[in-house]
Specification:
Layout (H helix, E strand, L loop, with lengths): L4 H25 L2 H4 L4 E8 L10 E4 L2 E12 L2 E9 L8 E7 L6 E7 L12 E2 L4 E2 L4 H14 L2 H15 L3 H20 L1 H20 L1 H20 L1 H25 L3 H41 L76 H5 L19
Parallel strand pairs: 1-7, 2-6, 5-8
Antiparallel strand pairs: 1-4, 2-3, 3-4, 5-6
Length: 404
């Protein structure tokens, strides 16, 4: 039978598509090249036991399947798992290996956990030693431990536990399903963000150590917080009243601030000048505030009768004892008559200007303490600040009457 040219082309095209499809299936799904060892590295993993591994168990690296267990054998009392992994993967040789289970029925797989991202990298024919591997607890050990635990629990208590657990989980299927789904979603998110999750776990240790070291401080802070919350609970009504009235009070304060805004800067400027004066004379003001109440009490005792330690008023006629101080004042011929009440301007500082240790008028201006330096004594601020300090004008001369 003769075939037309079109039919021959169609058959040829169909044959090519068929061959390409078979090749894709062989490579992508049947992985014939892996079976032939093409593009694969063979790594031997030394284990203390088989740990439930089987031929074709998956090999995972950073959560991605990169190969399978090609074969298992016993060698010198150890289990040797031959891993066939993708040669394109650059796996650091400094790594740990853990055997995990994918499900409750025991589908074990190999998890490669690198300690670093730098080389050297595993190559074909390398061996991972037993000290780098961790296997799960065997089923026998788990069953024996469970049996021992159940034996230690009295049967009646065990029945009570089972009954109470049944009552606790009755009609909670939907809630348990949501819990399991949430845990699965959490684990999935953690796997998608594997590196940040590992960094979080690695950094959790120092953080927890810091919490342990600051336990006393945390307990003290918790105690203070408990006392604050306890006070708030005890005065709940007052606190609620404060919250209710706080808004109107704040509005009034804002209105007051707005009203005094035009004059407030001037008042603050004046207060600044007053503050400068108070900063210099604060010691004198402090002494005044301390002494004045005692002087007031002493003055009252003069009238009511002076008990011990209070002021006493005694009338005695002392003539020229001690004599008056004349040094530093106007001479007798320049003194005004007591009857002259006209205002005059004094250009001189008039005070008892004898030496500071003179017994005459010991509380006079010459012995005023300097506000900026209480260790110095002077009659004026200028003399307090001068380098020379107080200079007496002479000794006290006897009083000679005869002025106008």
């Amino acid at each position: 039978m003769l075939l037309s040219k079109l039919v021959r082309y169609q058959l040829l095209t169909f044959a090519v598509v068929t061959l390409v499809s078979i090749a894709v299936i062989a490579v992508q799904y049947m992985k014939l090249h892996a079976m032939a060892g093409i593009g694969r590295n063979t790594i031997e993993l030394v284990l203390p036991s088989g740990a439930g591994l089987y031929k074709k168990s998956n090999v995972s690296y950073r959560g991605v399947d990169i190969g399978v267990v090609d074969s298992l054998r016993i060698d010198s009392g150890s289990a040797i798992a031959v891993l066939s992994v993708d040669s394109a993967e650059r796996i650091p040789a400094d790594l740990d290996v853990e055997i995990h289970s994918r499900s409750a029925i025991g589908e074990q797989y190999v998890e490669l956990l690198p300690r670093t991202t730098a080389g050297p990298y595993l190559a074909d024919g390398d061996t991972i030693t037993e000290d780098r591997t961790t296997i799960p607890t065997s089923t026998n050990t788990l069953v024996n431990a469970l049996s021992t635990g159940l034996t230690d629990v009295p049967s009646e208590d065990l029945h009570t536990l089972i009954d109470e657990s049944g009552m606790a989980f009755t009609d909670t299927g939907a809630d348990l399903q949501r819990t399991i789904d949430s845990v699965s979603a959490f684990i999935g998110t953690a796997q998608e963000n594997l590196e940040p999750t590992r960094a979080l776990i690695d950094n959790a240790g120092p953080l927890l150590d810091t919490q342990v070291q600051t336990t006393d401080a945390i307990r003290g802070w918790s105690g203070y917080l408990a006392s604050i919350t306890g006070s708030l609970a005890e005065h709940d009504s007052r606190f609620r009243g404060l919250l209710d009235e706080g808004g109107p009070a704040a509005a009034e304060l804002a209105r007051l601030t707005t009203d005094i805004a035009p004059t407030l800067p001037r008042a603050l400027g004046n207060l600044n000048s007053v503050a400068d004066v108070l900063a210099i004379y604060h010691l004198s003001i402090e002494q005044l505030l301390v002494v004045y109440p005692r002087m007031a009490a002493a003055a009252q005792s003069v009238v009511l009768g002076a008990p011990e330690g209070m002021g006493n008023l005694d009338f005695n006629l002392d003539v020229n004892a001690p004599p008056p101080c004349t040094t530093g004042f106007l001479p007798a011929d320049q003194r005004r008559s007591a009857a002259d009440s006209a205002l005059v301007t004094s250009t001189e500082q008039l005070y008892c200007a004898v030496p500071q240790d003179d017994p005459t008028v010991v509380r006079g201006a010459r012995n005023y303490p300097c506000a900026e330096d209480p260790d110095r004594r002077a009659p004026s601020v200028e003399i307090c600040r001068s380098d020379e300090g107080y200079i007496p004008r002479g000794n006290n001369e006897p009083f000679e009457p005869g002025g106008n």
